[in-house]
From TrEMBL:
Protein name: dTDP-4-amino-4,6-dideoxy-D-glucose transaminase
GN (gene name): vioA_2
Sorted UniProt keywords: Aminotransferase, Coiled coil, Membrane, Pyridoxal phosphate, Transferase, Transmembrane, Transmembrane helix
Coiled-coil positions: 243-270
Family: Belongs to the DegT/DnrJ/EryC1 family.
An example Gene Ontology molecular-function term: dTDP-4-amino-4,6-dideoxy-D-glucose transaminase activity
Transmembrane stretches, start-end: 63-85
Catalytic activity, EC: 2.6.1.33
Length: 395
């Protein structure tokens, strides 16, 4: 950062970027290669063996009776929604401020997203925000955990019981987490997870469902193996090589969490030097993965989020908007219940994901924070240059 004297020294205005190699917000954790090979080797001659081993390990890990693996989180969710939705009803109550493909999953099953607001503190669906969307056509409540901390598991569980509705959790971002009620993985009718390379537990690709319901577990396995003819039944099995990768990463999970914690602590120590930005804190009173680093741009942050992210991206700091656009305001090619969600609209303008994961060093974090500081100090000049650039003037 030292060589930067003024706004014109930013990559957005033509200077060389701060990082030669992009610093991303994805995890991309790699296990010790030999450990992966050992698991892969044992799968020779016993097809499905490593995958079953992974399912056993994951059901123990999550304190759930059953684990059914899938080729992706997407198909784990689709099969679970098909299996759990109340027959004859069409609507799935779900948040709008969430993972960009969540509505696609629901639409794929032939059901209709009914988007609800999120709680301003947890940034997640809650019993309060879900209740007002429940009606005679509600087939399922889809509780999605946010990317920092957990949604209100207890409240949603009580709501689902009261209204006699099935409750499915998307727990992709809460693999390691515990909440007041216990370890994530044993709540609702089922919980869905992903083993994509960008997630906490990297299996290259993959997903799984945990549940304490034996009948549901066997129905999901039959659907996953393409042994039934219901909607969503297709060969969605997890390959043994993927299971080997996930097992190796599961063995090393605690070490990964320790590294995530170091990175998070570095952000937490450095960010308060920058006015107008707030780090979303992990709830350290229960188990947490420290995986994602999310900041809020407060009212006194001097630039728009879009311009801020453009500046960071030009420096190869791959910060991303969290989440934008929210699902209810995205053009969609399938039916959904139109919703007016002012809180979601407002929250969708305020947050950004910062670089994290195993390819981001503590020094990188210092550099990113220094860049944010530089942006704050030079905000007026940056705004002027950006306006000039937008007007097509040469600078
Ligand atoms: C990534 C993700 C999924 C989908 O998982 P894939 O394995 O990529 O299909 C579902 N839900 C959330 C919250 C996610 O972040």
């Amino acid at each position: 950062m030292n060589r930067r004297q003024s706004a014109a020294d930013l990559a957005l205005f033509g200077a060389a970027p701060l990082f030669a190699v992009p610093r991303s917000t994805s995890n991309l954790v790699q296990p010790e290669f030999e450990r992966f090979l050992d698991y892969a080797r044992t799968s020779f001659g016993q097809p499905g063996g490593t995958t079953r081993h992974l399912e056993e390990r994951l059901s123990m890990f999550h304190h759930a009776d059953y684990c059914v693996s899938f080729c992706s989180g997407f198909w784990a969710l689709a099969a679970s929604i098909v299996a759990l939705a109340r027959p004859g009803r069409r609507e799935v109550v779900m948040p709008s401020l969430t993972y960009r493909r969540m509505a696609d999953v629901v639409a794929w099953t032939g059901l209709v997203p009914h988007f609800c607001e999120v709680d301003a503190t947890t940034l997640a669906i809650s019993a309060t925000t879900a209740t007002i969307c429940i009606n005679d056509d509600t087939a399922l409540i889809l509780g999605v955990h946010p990317i920092v901390n957990c949604c209100d598991v207890q409240g949603l569980t009580e709501l689902a019981a009261q209204r006699e509705l099935p409750l499915l959790f998307d727990s992709v971002e809460s693999v390691y987490e515990s909440c007041d009620a216990g370890k994530i993985g044993g709540f609702g009718n089922a919980e869905c997870f992903s083993l994509h390379a960008s997630k906490l537990l990297n299996g290259f690709e993959g997903g799984y469902v945990t549940t304490n319901d034996a009948a549901l577990a066997s129905r999901l396995a039959a659907s996953r193996d393409g042994r039934t003819l219901e909607r969503g039944a297709l060969d969605a099995r997890l390959a043994d090589t993927h299971a080997a990768m996930a097992l190796a990463n599961l063995d090393e999970l605690d070490a990964q969490i320790a590294r995530n914690r170091e990175r998070y602590k570095r952000y937490r120590a450095a960010l308060p030097t920058v006015p107008g930005i707030r780090l979303l804190n992990f709830d350290e009173s229960s188990r947490t993965s420290y995986k994602n680093v999310v900041v809020e741009l407060l009212d006194d942050w001097p630039l728009s989020r879009a311009l801020t992210i453009d500046i960071l991206n030009a420096e190869r700091v791959l910060a991303r908007a969290y989440y934008s656009p929210p699902l209810h305001s995205k053009p969609m090619a399938y039916p959904y219940i139109p919703a007016d969600l002012p809180h979601t609209d407002e929250l969708a303008t305020r947050f950004a994901l910062m670089p994290c994961g195993d390819f981001v060093s503590l020094d990188d974090i210092d550099t990113v924070v220094a860049l944010l500081h530089f942006i704050h100090v030079n905000a007026d000049e940056i705004r002027d240059l950006a306006a000039l650039a937008a007007a097509g003037a040469s600078i």
